[in-house]
Amino acid sequence: MSLLRYESQVREPLVDGHKTYHDVTEDICKPVEAAPTRLWWIGFIISVALLLFGAVSLYKEVVYGTGMWNLNKTIGWGWDITNFVWWVGIGHAGTLISAILLLFRQGWRTGVNRAAEAMTIFAVICAGQFPIWHMGRVWMAFFVMPYPNTRGPLWVNFNSPLLWDVFAISTYFTVSLLFWYSGLIPDMATLRDRAKKKWAKAFYGVASFGWTGSTKHWQRHESLSLVLAGLSTPLVLSVHTIVSFDFATSVIPGWHTTIFPPYFVAGAIFSGFAMVQTLMLVTRKIMNLEDYITISHIENMNKVIVLTGSIVGCAYLTELFMAWYSAVKYEQDIFFKYRIAGPYGWSYWLMMTCNVITPQLFWSKKLRRNIAFTFLMSIVVNVGMWFERFVIIVSSLYRDYLPSSWSVYYRPTIWEVGFYLGSFGLFFTCYFLFSKYFPVIAIAEIKHVLKKNGESYKEQMDGIEEQSVEEFAHEHAHAH
Amino acid sequence: MSKNKYWQSFGQLNATKAYTEDAANEFKEELPFEMDDNGAKTPRRDFLKYLGFSTAAATLAASCEIPVKKAIPFLNKPADIVPGVANYYATTFVLDGDVIPVVAKVRDGRPIKIEGNELGFTKGGTSQRVQASVLSLYDTARVRFPMEKTGEGFKEAPTYEAVDKKIAAALTAAAGKQIVLLTSTINSPTVLTVIDEFKAKYPTAKHVTYDAVSYSGIIQANEVSYGKKGIPSYHFDAADVIVSFGADFLGTWLNPVDFAKQYAGKRKINEKNPTMSRHFQFESMYSLTGASADERYTHKPSELGAALLALYAKVGGAVTAPAIADKRLAAGIDAAAKELLAAGGNAVVVSGSNDVNAQIIVNAINDKIGANGKTVNYGTMLNYRKGVDAEFEQLVADMNAGAVGAVFIHGANPVYTYRDGKKFADALKKVSLSVSFNEREDETTAECKFILPDHHYLESWGDAEAKSGYLSFIQPTIHPLFKTRAFATSLLKWSGSTVADYETYFKAYWISKLGGQIAFDQALQDGVMEPAAPVVAGASFNGAALTDAVAKLSAAKKGGKHELVIYQKVSIGDGKMANNPWLQEMPDPLTRACWDNYAIVSPETAKEFGYATQAELDEYEVNPPKRVLKITAAGKSIELPLIIVPGTNNSTIAVATGYGRSEKVGRAAKGAGQNIYPFVGFNGATYEYVVADVAVEKTDKMYDVVQMQTHGTYDNRVEVVKETSLAVFKKDPKYFINERMAEIGPYGGIDGLEEKGTLYPVFDKPGIKWGMSLDLNLCNGCGACVVACSAENNVSVVGKTQVGKYHDMHWLRIDRYFSGDMENPDVVFQPMMCQHCDNAPCENVCPVAATNHSSEGLNQMTYNRCIGTRYCANNCPYKVRRFNWHDWNGADSFKDNQNPLVEYGRLNEVTLDMNDDLTRMVLNPDVTVRSRGVIEKCSFCVQRLQEAKLTAKKDSRPLVDSDIKTACQQACPTNAIVFGNVNDKESAINKVRTQEGYNRNYYVLEQIHVLPNVSYLAKVRNTDRTVGNHEEGHEAHGEEKHEEKKEAATEAAH
């Protein structure tokens, strides 16, 4: 191993504790191999219960009609599409961490990328539920698929941003899934090799695709990771851009805004990182993975949060400025009379507080490294981001062009809320299953950074750091 | 048996080898399943075939069974019925005294739509009630056979003959006592003669006319002033100045269809020489007519007499008028008086009051200003209402005294509409024989001993004389649906007539009168018979009673802090048609509320009752629950939610009649509102619809009032509504053009906007291009078009709960905007439907292309394609798209999913009513009934357009204007809607846009470049006030600029 890849002691280690390769394998595989804990069962049962409630809510909606929700002739989208955009946003962190940070060679990503990617996939699955089930005739949902057919033939409308969503999200989901799964293969092989039970051997055997750990496999694996990272990077930017087109291409004041694509992407990363924080803080605690998901990981992510939160804040102010500057009275009315004030004014200020004001506290290093505070903030940010979407969708629609059509107050019904809760159920059911049966941290990748960024390695470097230049030069003169 | 051998071929005869082989292998072609080398029966290559076949078979076997509905063709087809082709029959809508000549559209034996008869005096106009009447034919709550009371309930009587016998016996027993025919106003000449025959047979018989809402005041005043006991006809088309004291002549007073037509003639703007009649309205609550007025003043309800006397004094009457404290009102009376005098007889004063003295003063004023014989015509009397209140009071007294032996009730429903319904019900119990001919088991009918249901007018023969000399005929459009019998037939039977039934009587009467079968057939075919020119005559005014009237009015009781006004809603009226779901769901033009009545108060008064702060008003605006008020007068009290209407007099609380019906009336009327009739007063001569002093308390209760529009003003959005005063428009005919140019001038201006307002190429639009124009000056907001649209296009009724959720389905709505000073605001009505934008924002966002553009400029909805994302509805700037939130029509893939919703309280019972097999007969077979989960909207009545195009094509001629009328256009009593092919230079729509209405023409929200195909003509009011609430001083964006742009555009084109 070359000492030319020397890393300064000033940098904090990415893996704490004096871990050997074997320790890493043991630490990460243990939760998978051991029987589920009590806490896991409690969490899992709650999640499944929520999922079932969601299923009942959907049953009501599908059988009796979208009227089971309180949407109306003026507000055609409410909680449904708010939840959709919110979940899609959350689904951004995983790919950002795995792809963009991979390309930028950010070693710290290894501690969190696996769980973040899993979260992405589950979030996208949850997100996908909303545009599907919000359809009035969901049994005709396949009409959005462009394939030759005998229904006319009924061809899709490529002008519709909603159709772009179909492609954007399905592509994103596919690539994220592939990326996640290709990273899992070496770890699956590890689990296979350690498995003692017959079903586990069979399951991990199939799941690892015959991975032997040969150099050839590793080389192909690395290339594939890079290719997928290259593919995913534009997707991270494109998906939420396209989601924002649903609004930006419309004629509704408050929607018709060119700032939406960057604003949505920043917001998505913002909420995605917050969600990763929420999950990671719980996971590391419950699964004793504090050595792998360290305080510096948390701090790094908090830095991303304060950055994206500030971008989002700028976007909010820009919107207000543009509304004034445009001199379009319909837009001015929406922003100044009915968004920051009016019946839904409270939601705007809730959004502002959660997304712009409170994240600024992360400028303080002490707070960035405070776990309890970070956990609280991660929740606050996602509440704020939910309200951002709610504000955009509902407070633009409810008072648009013709005052005659301004809406009555929109409150969700129990079935609307139930659908949202059900999506949490789906998400956490998936996440609990994932954390039980899959390694939540990328074993192979942690081992990859262990040697040069791990605490044990860094300690070995102490002696070298204290050497004089001559000594060092002498000792290592023959290394190559 | 013969041993002969029969053979088919030589091969068989000779049993050749080839033949035997062939015979053994009869089906030579190989089955598609090959045996492969290994001899496996289903080789790999056949796997897909098997898979495909079994999947298809399984799908077929398992697919939902589609219920088989049989359509049985005629065995012998009647000559004049072609399945799928509509027949039209002229007939007459008659409801109590109301008469409108109509044409019924009959498809496959079912009347499905009512249109106005253009030959009649209403010239094709209709009202919302006329439009809705076809649904009442199929009302599930109609009494279906004769019934007799046994114990508490009714039992079916076996036959009419059996009932006739019983009644004949009872009539004999009642000899010596009064026999009373209690009817609502009857203006059928034949029925009146039948009644006379009946009276001749029974000398103690008398005919009492009782109207739910009385016009006794006018009738009696005319008897006093002119010796003519009746109502004169009015000529609003001859009036340059109209002064109305609370007469809602465009909404509910006498015959609004007729009046609206006349009125519109003087309101239509000729741009070359703009003139208009001038309309003053003095009233306490905001009426539909008040909304059209140029100058509107409010007064306390108890101040009416003083106001009338003040006006009388100003026009030269020799009276000392009581002082008017309200300066604005006093100034208004001054102004009205000046103009009335200046009009030289071309003016009219009308009053909605039922007070004889007030009407005498109105007569005196009309006489003073020379209207008598000009705009007020005693040569032709109106027959809409004939009831004299004192006669009915006498009847109640007689009944209570036991002087009445038999009472026959037709049309009237006093237990519900009388001020003391219980008193009448008790009196009715004292009458040994009581028979109701009403079509349903209403409140009065429930108290009678027999029910002999009359036909619906669409099942009847008959005639009506709306005004003297104006005859219209009723012919059946369908065989009676139930075992019903004409009222007059019963009378004929009981009076021992030789004529078998009323039909025979009616035909004989008119054939002899008109001089033959041919003339009779012609009359039936036309539906009307009218004098060539109206008879106009004055009458000599007798001022003798004037002093007394003046004294009584001057001595009128001062009003209290709150005064109650009882009014009729434009939709429900007196409540006769309360079980009509279309009418119940038609929002009131002013309050935009439906399915209930409520207490209307002014914003100022509302402050007392919990709506003072802005926050409270915001709450009020966006939430259906409204504060409930308790109104008490003369020991009676009622609790009603309040609704705030700006422009209501501060002391006034207004409540509509027609609500609070009994359960038996039907499932639509059930639970809707409360009955206000008990608050009607009686002054010894006539009923009073004003209670001068009521106590009003705020309660803690809240009650949902559902409205289809919650925000009241147009908030300075002049791209939506344009209005100005006649003076401004005369001075600056380019006023509206300048206003438009201010917005679109930089983007190509009026003519260049389409091309210059976009980056995209512009397409030619050859051939037909449909367009519609709505004249805001002519639209009075009555809502006939709204109901017509529902009837024509099978628009679903959603019920109160769903309207409260803002889930109403109306394709056409009439937006109401208040503007100006909120104490005395103006109102603009704006009919709003799909604008069929050429650059439609809904079209490009639909992922499945379910809504798209036709080559004729229609924005069309393909229900089968729609998957219900609602994206189009969100992106519609006009918010005209309607989503099927629930299964309104039983047309869903999920069967029987309505009942649980009704039980759960999310749907009202009216949904079940509308889905009854009987009610569904009203559906228009040319229009798809939409299923749940799809979007729908105005189609410009595409089914009518297709039919018109086909007719023109069959005749090998180009399409002309007269081929097409949309349902709304046809229903409109004021011809505010013009529709046609814009590309046709000769079409009315083209002329309106390019010539006649060029200066007032505008498109709503044209600046967003959606290029609507619906245009509006801006509203002009004949007033000196500043109209609307837009900023002062439009800059001179100028015609020059417009011209410049035009030139630039032309240059660019070269």
UniProtKB/TrEMBL annotation, chain A:
| Top-level taxon of origin | Bacteria
Q: How does it sit in the membrane?
A: Multi-pass membrane protein
Does the entry feature the keyword Transmembrane, yes or no? yes
Localization terms from the record: Cell membrane
Main location as per UniProt: membrane
Q: Which GO terms describe its cellular component?
A: plasma membrane
Residues that span the membrane, as ranges: 39-59, 84-104, 116-142, 162-184, 224-243, 263-283, 304-326, 346-363, 375-397, 417-434
Q: Name one Pfam family in it.
A: NrfD
Fetch the InterPro entries from UniProt: NrfD-like (IPR005614)
Protein keywords? Cell membrane, Membrane, Transmembrane, Transmembrane helix
**Family, as annotated:** Belongs to the NrfD family.
| Name assigned to this protein | Molybdopterin-containing oxidoreductase family membrane subunit
Organism equals Lacibacter cauensis
From TrEMBL, chain B:
Protein name (Swiss-Prot/TrEMBL): Molybdopterin-containing oxidoreductase family iron-sulfur binding subunit
Entry-linked PANTHER family: GLUTAMATE SYNTHASE [NADPH] SMALL CHAIN, GLUTAMATE SYNTHASE [NADPH] SMALL CHAIN-RELATED
Q: Which InterPro entries match?
A: 4Fe4S_Fe-S-bd, TAT_var_transloc_signal_dom
What are the 4Fe-4S ferredoxin-type domain coordinates in residue numbering? Answer: 770-800, 825-856, 857-886
**Which residues, if any, are the signal sequence?**
none
Name the domain of life this protein comes from: Bacteria
Q: Which Pfam families match?
A: Fer4_11
Which segments carry the region annotation Disordered? 1028-1054
